[in-house]
């Protein structure tokens, strides 16, 4: 009911002093307003007394002026602190989200979805900051203000003070009853809006098809029905909003009217003076301003809470890659990488890999092939330890994968992905990501080994040449070669090429395969490629089918065996001839 949210309260940790400062300055504003109300009421009350003198007028005006200046300054300061709190909240939340997102590995990013990661850091943060700069201070203030005013009014009339306090305390729970209904209707309204917009978009995109089949009038009729449903939902939403407003305002004005009736009766009986009655009239409005402020802030709080849900999903993602040096070593003491009965499935999906065993002897080249979706990239992700097997074990040079620190693993295994990511900056800056201590000679050596030596010589600025936004100033082939150069700089013994030439032109593809051929003399290569002609020299080829190892052997052995491998090779040869 108080709209307190665990995620938001956790994020508010460094912000409490600011939140309390806003509530405190709001309270000072109330103190100023109360003083002003009392000064004005006393002055107006004194006008009815015969002995009014100029000095009374002067001191009343002076006091009213001071109270006004005080209130104005308090309000100004409140605005400034609110602004500061919003800025601080944004910055704190963005830093928390950014540092978590940067901890995610490939599996984690896919699980959340890159779009969610962006909206969490941009939109959600904007929505959540209002919770700290507006809702929480209003909540605190809405508790203090009625109590403060109660103590002010109780000396004039206890019954009025109790009545106003009671009504101000029940307003927020009552408002929440309406709010629950409003939120449910808002969801229905958004759904019908989405439904209508989606149908409208479908119609626009497929207008020619609709006309071809003479279905445009029917489409227009359904669209009209959807527009009616939307209208009905908007009306229901507005009706409940208006009812909520009406009930709240009626209660407030009823409480004020009853208070005035009590004051007038008191005046008649001589228990209450005119000045006191005027004070009640003026302060009764202040009684409800805090709760009104809270009610309007509670709308932002609800938006903030739903945004916090998205952020919580990111913050809760497990980014730990625990390692335990005590895990038992490989009983076979295999010199290389070995997968033993490994199974892995993505959340909510059937197994992507099932009981896969494979060996990658140090110094060899091993290829993984198979139809799209057979699990090749999943095997690469497991080898990079972007994820851990659900069942089975992976060993590297006699050690259990999870007994090696993530840093050690990264220095042993590098990957050249399908799309190499380059950052805006120079060639040097992009290469230093892999080895921050590398000197120019080493960088040039890696570039030349990756097949970029002659290209570098053509650049007037050499290593200081700009690669453009996300590497836009380089060709697709050059970007992939930069990825290879980076992998070389990491000095990893094991290198995974996951469809490293799938997005480059035939000339670059040939050059990259030549480079890979050279690398196979000094490194252990794990090659994933859909081009069967490129992996024929691999020492061992694993053919995956629906997540299972269907065949294994050299090219010659597999061609002799027949089965899926020979089918894939023959099919591709036929396609190449046709091209
Ligand atoms: N992040 C993911 N979430 C859920 N399922 C996934 C995810 N990544 C892959 N899969 C599923 O796992 C299976 C194996 O996918 P994987 O990418 O390993 O295949 P692949 O052989 O590399 O395919 P391709 O040759 O098309 O790249 C597929 O059914 C795929 O839909």
Automatic annotation (TrEMBL):
GO terms for cellular component: plasma membrane. PROSITE patterns: ABC_TM1F, ABC_TRANSPORTER_1, ABC_TRANSPORTER_2. InterPro entries: AAA+_ATPase, ABC1_TM_dom, ABC1_TM_sf, ABC_transporter-like_ATP-bd, ABC_transporter-like_CS, P-loop_NTPase, Type_1_exporter. Residues 19-303 form the ABC transmembrane type-1 domain. The keyword Cell membrane applies. Residues 337-571 form the ABC transporter domain. It holds the Pfam family ABC_tran. This is ATP-binding cassette domain-containing protein. Its main location: membrane. Keywords: ATP-binding, Cell membrane, Membrane, Nucleotide-binding, Transmembrane, Transmembrane helix, Transport. It is found in: Cell membrane. One of its GO terms (molecular function) is ATP hydrolysis activity. Signal peptide: none annotated. It is a multi-pass membrane protein. Gene3D superfamilies: ABC transporter type 1, transmembrane domain, P-loop containing nucleotide triphosphate hydrolases. SMART domains: AAA. The chain crosses the membrane at residues 61-81, 130-150, 156-178, 242-267, 273-291.
């Amino acid at each position: 009911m108080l709209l307190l949210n665990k995620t938001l309260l956790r994020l508010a940790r460094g912000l409490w002093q600011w939140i309390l400062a806003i509530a405190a300055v709001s309270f000072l504003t109330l103190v100023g307003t109360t003083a002003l109300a009392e000064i004005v009421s006393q002055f107006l009350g004194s006008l009815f007394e015969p002995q009014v003198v100029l000095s009374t007028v002067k001191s009343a005006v002076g006091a009213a002026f001071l109270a006004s200046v005080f209130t104005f300054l308090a309000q100004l300061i409140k605005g400034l602190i609110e602004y500061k709190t919003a800025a601080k909240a944004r910055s704190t939340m963005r830093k928390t989200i950014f540092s978590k997102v940067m901890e995610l590995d490939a599996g984690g990013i896919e699980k959340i979805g890159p779009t969610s990661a962006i909206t969490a850091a941009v939109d959600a943060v904007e929505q959540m900051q209002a919770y700290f700069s507006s809702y929480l201070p209003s909540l605190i203030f809405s508790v203090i203000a009625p109590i403060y005013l109660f103590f002010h009014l109780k000396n004039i009339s206890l019954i009025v003070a109790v009545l106003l306090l009671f009504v101000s305390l029940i307003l927020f729970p009552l408002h929440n009853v309406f709010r629950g209904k409003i939120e449910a209707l808002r969801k229905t309204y958004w759904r019908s809006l989405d439904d209508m917009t989606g149908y409208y978009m479908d119609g626009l995109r497929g207008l020619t098809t609709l006309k071809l089949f003479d279905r445009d009038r029917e489409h227009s009729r359904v669209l009209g029905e959807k527009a009616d449903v939307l209208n009905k939902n908007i009306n229901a939403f507005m009706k409940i909003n208006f009812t909520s407003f009406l009930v709240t305002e009626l209660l407030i004005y009823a409480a004020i009217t009853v208070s005035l009736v009590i004051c007038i009766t008191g005046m008649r009986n001589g228990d209450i003076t005119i000045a006191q009655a005027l004070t009640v009239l003026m302060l009764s409005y202040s009684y409800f301003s805090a709760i009104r402020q809270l009610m309007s802030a509670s709308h932002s709080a609800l938006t903030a809470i739903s945004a916090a849900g998205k952020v919580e999903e990111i913050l809760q993602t497990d980014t730990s890659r625990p390692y335990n040096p005590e895990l038992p070593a490989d009983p076979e003491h295999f010199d290389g990488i070995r997968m033993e009965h490994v199974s892995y499935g993505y959340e909510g999906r059937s197994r992507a890999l099932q009981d896969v065993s494979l060996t990658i002897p140090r110094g060899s080249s091993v290829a993984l092939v198979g139809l799209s979706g057979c699990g090749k990239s999943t095997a690469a992700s497991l080898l990079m330890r972007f994820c851990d097997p659900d069942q089975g074990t992976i060993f590297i040079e006699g050690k259990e994968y999870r007994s090696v620190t993530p840093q050690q693993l990264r220095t042993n295994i590098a990957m050249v992905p399908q799309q190499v990511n380059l950052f805006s900056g120079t060639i040097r800056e992009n290469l230093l990501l892999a080895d921050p201590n590398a000197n120019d000679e080493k960088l040039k050596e890696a570039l030349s080994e990756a097949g970029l030596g002659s290209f570098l010589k053509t650049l007037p600025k050499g290593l200081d040449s700009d690669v453009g936004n996300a590497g836009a100033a380089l060709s697709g082939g050059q970007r992939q070669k930069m990825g290879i150069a980076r992998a070389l700089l990491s000095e990893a013994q094991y290198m995974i090429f996951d469809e490293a030439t799938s997005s480059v032109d035939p000339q670059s593809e040939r050059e990259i395969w030549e480079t890979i051929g050279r690398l196979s003399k000094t490194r252990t290569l794990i090659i994933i490629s859909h081009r069967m002609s490129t992996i024929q020299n691999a020492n061992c080829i694993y053919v995956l089918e629906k997540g299972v190892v269907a065949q294994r052997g050299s090219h010659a052995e597999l061609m002799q065996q027949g089965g899926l491998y020979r089918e894939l090779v023959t099919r591709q040869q036929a396609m190449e001839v046709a091209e």
